[in-house]
Amino acid sequence: MVVALLSCTSSFSVLSSTVKLRYSHRHRHRHIHIPINSIHYNSNPQRLSSSPKSNRQKEGVGQKKQLRQLKDERHGRGNVVEPQPNSYNEFMFDSEDQQVEPSNLQDSAFLNAVVKVYCTHTAPDYSLPWQKQRQYTSTGSAFMIGGRKLLTNAHCVEHYTQVKVKRRGDDSKYVAKVLARGVDCDIALLSVESEEFWMDVEPLRFGRLPHLQDSVTVVGYPLGGDTISVTKGVVSRIEVTSYANGSSDLLGIQIDAAINPGNSGGPAFNDQGECIGVAFQVYRSEEAENIGYVIPTTVVSHFLTDYEKNGRYTGFPCLGILIQKLENPALRACLKVQSNEGVLVRRVEPTSDANNVLKEGDVIVSFDDVHVGCEGTVPFRSNERIAFDFLTSQKFAGDTAELGIIREGTLMKAKIVLNARVHLVPYHMDEGQPSYLIIAGLVFTPLSEPLIVEECDDSIGLKLLAKARYSLPRFKGEQIVILSQVLANEVNIGYEDMSNQQVLKFNGTRIKNIHHLAHLIDSCKDRYLCFEFDDSYVAVLEREAVAAASSSILRDYSIPSERSSDLLKPYVDSLEGDQPAGQELGDIPVSNFEIGIDGLLWA
Fold first, then answer.
1. 264 given a catalytic annotation
2. The pTM is what?
3. In the predicted model, what is the mean pLDDT of residues 381-400?
4. Which of 287, 307, 402, 590 has the lowest CB atom count within 10 Å?
5. Catalytic site includes residue 186
6. 159 is catalytic
């Protein structure tokens, strides 16, 4: 079965006489691997309909909602997890304002708050890190919220150089400023300074998390036309799902309304005209149809509250552990777990605070007094269950969680500080140019997911790919530094064919990151520069010859500088003592068996 999980931003260039589609293929993260030929594009504008689907609203939906509310009140909440309301007063939920009839939704005035986004992107060239790629344009959707702000998807403004927005029925475009980008939750916050842009329009109000079978309407500017598009469907599922662009697992709303390229960043409404989320991706398979995803208001409110509290976006935290389900009775008995609950801690990330508290073999039975089931789920609302990850996503970076754990048959409590996960190989490069260092034509750069995508898997090598996919950092700041390529010159004769090899040591000293490598080279007084690579390969250069050839190599290849600007800063060794003795850096392999199967998952 061929499966693809796609971000739905449109990369349709309206300035060119030809259709140009550019998509990010950075979806081969820890859970799924997406072959290039499995991605399906719909580049035929005539096939994209701007009219809504047939109305699937069932009679008595309102009565069902009342019955569910009465049922919740009768049975009580207990330890049932409820989605947290927004604490940022500018974006409070409102279930009474802007009430409209479902039949008049397409003609409602509040649809004027939905705008079209025009973005010009200039991404770095990761294979030639001293320069940029050719710019391209894309279109997406956004909508107005309180405080004169706009919400859209983070992938709609990725590597932006200019962002413009246009209101419905207007022929003027206004320059927008990107205030914050949350890559893990795929949300971006924009602002427009022009007073004219905000005239005679009301911002949208957020509604509560919907229930199954609730009607939902997606509004945006997909391919196939320049006017607003409305599609209608129902909520088919609510669960923790993979965010393809953000390489994270957060709460998501699955709907069957059509979502096409260009709908990204557009709002999804309920029957009362309240925004229940942001359209952002679709799931395509030969065996599945009409599966789209909406970022719920609980995730949106977390992003907005985080930005308001810190003045910037800090990200969703995580526990930093690999857990296994405890469905097997014999396994529970072996671990001295008496009840049918809990998850087994299989591995703990060295960079997380959990590394100071938890041990392999511990069983987590509760999270802030919410009981964790043996399948790794917790109660959700009245009669639902949801993945354990949902609990940590309700926290902010720096918050504390109290865990109930069973260790060797003894129940105890432990407090853990939650922080954003540290990746050995980053999935995204948000700011500036990639780091690079050129020594005698040898180009060194940190390994990243965009570089892997640009170079293609075949040229990277299976061993390096395995480290990139499954290894964990042993300390904050650790990087896998590779020799990307060799710029041919007489000083590096014999090394011209080397490419994409990990450098492990310089003159006998193990490398921590690229800044550390630059520091070691700058402070070297030896006659020779000796680089030791993976697979016991060695490259030796004479230091004086390297210094003499550097300027000519930069001139011959039209390179402005031998290193990126971040490596010009003084190196501060803040990692001394943080690395475990006697163990290889970046060499904590998580086997392919442990990633992406139903029995084990990252929390």
1. yes
2. 0.79
3. 91
4. 287
5. yes
6. no
